[in-house]
Specification:
The protein is an alpha+beta fold. Helix content is 26%, strand content 26%. It contains ten helices and 15 strands. The strands form six sheets. A four-stranded mixed sheet has the order 10-11-15-14. Strands 1-9-8 form a three-stranded mixed sheet. About 8% of the residues have low confidence.
Length: 385
């Protein structure tokens, strides 16, 4: 398999300085170091690849030959002229890494708790976020609304104030991790010593254990409560929008900070209107005389009713626009329109007088016009015209 470009391996430019190359290698080496990725063969290969690239680019002479001739120019690279990279293995990579960074200690490199058994600040776990789905009518979406939401969530225990310990007592330092919240496991192999770090099982990563638990929360430091919360929903929200409210989620265990409340908006189906972005569409029946002669009709809107002028010769499915009668644009003064689609209403039963008039009209009108374009084309023209 052909080798990748050394600059690409480290993620640096060809003009990068020696200091930039060293920083880039340190970042890659820490990410893929075997101690941080025990048993991960792919990470091991990445670590070796990054170290090989670094060993060439850190040396001015080797870098010059590589820039001029590529990989073939540094065949005598690692360990001095003539040594070559053919035998570059994990032990070589680990020695190179420890040569430049060994003095820092693996704890410092890997974000641990320092050498010599130094402790760190007690770890706390944040509470989970809480999700609530809130269904709104189209009228509520258009006007904005204040809603009361009933929540059941975990809250800090009032008896122990979230500590989990019986009042008058205190949590004790975990004897397994000595308050660090993490435990280290050391494995030895022919390639050297490998160290893995994991949360302490006894204290759950907190660093403390409860020897005398609170009677009210049994050491959890929190309990379930029911709470009613008032939430203001702005006009113009849409299906799938969400409103985050900080610190109104579940409290964290043992005094951990609370999560957030996330309100997810859902829209109820409307019996009259369809929503299309900030516009709304409704269909209204009109009589044949109104369609033929024209006239004014009353149509429903999200805020009440409005008068609409129907021109003479209106065809079924013709669409009219009421400006500014739609949904407000979220956090804006702009507002959508209401589209009104006309539908010619045909009565199912006729009185004798109506029948006589329509029969006479049929005799006068004669033949119908030939078929033209389809309904959808006419609706599109009416909306965009």
């Amino acid at each position: 398999m052909s080798k990748r470009d050394y600059y690409e391996v480290l993620g640096v430019d060809r003009s990068s300085s020696a200091d930039e190359i060293k920083k880039a290698y340190r970042k890659k080496a820490v990410q893929y170091h075997p101690d941080k990725n025990p048993g991960d063969r792919e990470a091991e290969e990445r670590f070796k690849e990054a170290t090989e690239a670094y060993e060439v680019l850190r040396d001015d002479e080797k870098r010059k030959r590589y820039d001029q001739f590529g990989h073939s120019g540094v065949d005598g690279g690692f360990g001095g002229p003539g040594a070559g990279f053919g035998g570059f293995d994990l032990s070589d990579a680990l020695r190179a890494f420890m040569r430049d960074f060994g003095g820092m200690g693996l704890d410092d490199l890997f974000g641990g708790f320092g050498a010599g058994g130094a402790t760190r600040e007690r770890s706390v776990r944040r509470g989970q976020n809480l999700q609530v789905r809130l269904k709104l009518t189209l009228e509520e979406v258009a006007a904005g609304v204040s809603k009361k939401i009933k929540l059941r969530r975990m809250s800090p225990c009032e008896t122990c104030r979230g500590s989990g310990a019986r009042p008058g007592s205190s949590p004790a330092t975990c004897p397994d991790c000595r308050g660090v919240g993490q435990v280290r496991q050391v494995q030895r192999s022919i390639l050297g010593q490998f160290v893995s770090v994991a949360p302490c099982r006894r204290c759950g990563g907190v660093g403390e254990v409860i020897l005398d638990p609170c009677d009210a929360c049994h050491g959890e430091g929190r309990g379930q409560i029911t709470e009613t919360l008032s939430v203001d929903i702005p006009a113009g929200v849409s299906q799938g929008n969400y409103i985050p409210i900080e610190s109104k989620g579940h409290a964290g265990p043992r005094g951990g900070p609370p999560g957030d409340l996330v309100i997810i908006i859902e829209e109820k189906d409307h019996h009259v209107f369809e929503r299309h972005g900030d516009d709304v569409l409704c269909e209204v029946p009109i009589s044949y005389p109104t369609a033929a002669l024209g006239g004014k009709i009353e149509v429903p809107t999200l805020s009440g009713t409005a008068r609409l002028e129907i021109p003479a010769g209106t065809q079924t499915h013709q669409v009219f626009r009421l400006r500014g009668q739609g949904i407000p644009h979220l956090h804006s003064s702009r507002r959508g329109d209401q589209l009104v689609r006309a539908r010619i209403w045909t009565p199912k039963k006729l009185s004798p007088e109506e029948r006589m008039i329509l029969e006479k009209l049929g005799e006068i009108q004669g033949k119908l016009p030939k078929p033209g374009r389809g309904i959808f084309e006419r609706i599109r023209d009416a909306i965009t015209g």
